[in-house]
Amino acid sequence: MNLHLSGHHLDLTPAIRSYVLEKLGRVRRHFDQVIDLHVIMSVAKLRHKVEVSVHVAGRDIHVESIDADMYAAIDALADKLDRQIVKHKEKLTLHRHETEPIKRQIADI
């Protein structure tokens, strides 16, 4: 998994970097086939914005979160990304299991 962190109008401190790594580590618990993660953090006045683009096999997932606190924005982003990854994984497994019985029925005939 390749992780790219960048900050716009923000210095990426080691504390923020480790917090992002810890929160986005949950993605690997649900889905092992993550190829790239691009995280962009920006600050504009009192608005902290965190965006992530995840490249997985067969799909790109983009999530963003805006909050008054950077750590709260990272938490919200991790929750949103977690839900989308689980949804993508369920689609893959449901699609795979729906086609198996049809193949078996054709082979029995």
Secondary-structure map with pairings?
Elements: E1 2-8, H1 14-30, E2 34-44, E3 47-56, E4 59-67, H2 70-108
Parallel strand pairs: 1-2
Antiparallel strand pairs: 2-3, 3-4
Helix pairs in contact: 1-2
Structure write-up:
It is built from 2 helices and 4 strands. Helix 1 (14-30) packs parallel to helix 2 (70-108). 51% of the residues lie in helices and 34% in strands. Strand 1, helix 1 (14-30) and strand 2 (34-44) form a beta-alpha-beta unit. The model has no long low-confidence stretch (mean pLDDT 84). The chain has a 4-stranded mixed beta sheet, covered by helices on one side. It has a single domain (2-108), classed as Double Stranded RNA Binding Domain. The protein has 109 residues and is α+β, with helices and mostly antiparallel strands. It starts with a strand and ends with a helix. The protein is elongated, with a radius of gyration of 18 Å.
Care to give the gist of this entry?
With about 110 residues, the chain is an alpha+beta fold.
Beta-strand fraction estimate = 25-35%
Q: Could you please say which CATH topology applies here?
A: Double Stranded RNA Binding Domain
- Secondary-structure element pattern, one letter each: EHEEEH
Q: What's the CATH first level?
A: Alpha Beta
What is the approximate shape?
Answer: elongated
- Please give the largest β-sheet: 4 strands, mixed
| Domain unit count | 1
Report the uncertain regions. none
- SS elements, strand count: 4
Major sheet strand order: 1-2-3-4
- The first-to-last residue Cα distance is 45 Å
